[in-house]
Amino acid sequence: MRDAxxxxxxxxxxxxxxxxxxxxxxxxxxxxxxxxxxxKPATAIANRFQYDCDACHxxxxxxxxxxxxxxxxPLTKWFLATYLLCESKKGMSACQIQRTLGISYKTAWYLCHxxxxxxxxxxxEKLEGTVEIxxxxxxxxxxxxxAKNEPQVVIGIRQxxxxxxxxxxxxxxxxxxxxxxNANVGGHVEVILTDESAIYPWALDNMQKSKHKxxxxxxxxxxxxxxxxxxxxxxxxxxxxIVGTWHKVSAKHLPAYLDEMCFRFNNRKNxxxxxxxxxxxxxxxxxxxxxxxxxxxxxx
Length: 300
Ligand SMILES: [Zn+2]
What we know:
Layout: H1 7-13, H2 17-28, E1 42-45, E2 50-53, E3 59-61, H3 75-87, H4 94-101, H5 105-119, E4 127-138, E5 152-159, E6 164-169, H6 174-184, E7 185-195, H7 199-203, H8 206-209, E8 212-215, E9 222-223, E10 226-227, H9 229-246, H10 254-266, H11 273-283, H12 289-299
Helix pairs in contact: 3-5, 3-11, 4-5, 5-10, 5-11
The structure holds zinc ion.
């Protein structure tokens, strides 16, 4: 099967449960089926999509121990949702997934969160080379019981011709921004570009300061190579995504949306994105609906 895939091909190739199961089998066990309990080889049971462990005789299916297990949702819909979330440049809301797949809102919401969690970079590498840093403000979802609607601070860090990080900050103070920069910018960084905001001279350490160049936005947008245009273009994509697709994001879910945006952006040239996201879904720990809602409520 070709790995870069369009929607008609997806529907043709994964239009039924059996072909989805075959694909999960191939992605999950590249060197032959092994038992999830004892890791020994297992044999397929004819006509049942089940396997029997040669050693301990535990019987399991291709979805056992994965997030696909125990969901009442057909695998074909899991595949479609994963594809849609990977392919849409600005993301898709749970409402859109609900309508497109003809499922309940609750199911669509759960699905979107699970796929987003799988998209999360486990241990992102630090950014090097030429790095642009900028901050922006995102309006949160209006809460009836909350008098004030504090905008959320998002710090964007982009390596030229490389990866993007979008991080929600608790405020735009130098100490907060310093922590975020140190967690995301590596020791071999060559140039750090920001605007003339007063945050950065205080947020950068001495090594970083020696590499710091600024652009005065009231005068010009670029001075030769000195500009923050590539991180700003990521911000405009983020804002179009939030306004156009998600219709304002509640503060507690903002980090998950930022992670999703970054994942999609950093994989923009990855023609195997659908396959890679499926692999992450297969290997990711199972997060049940009740855990997910509890986590969201605790974070509120
Ligand atoms: Zn076994």
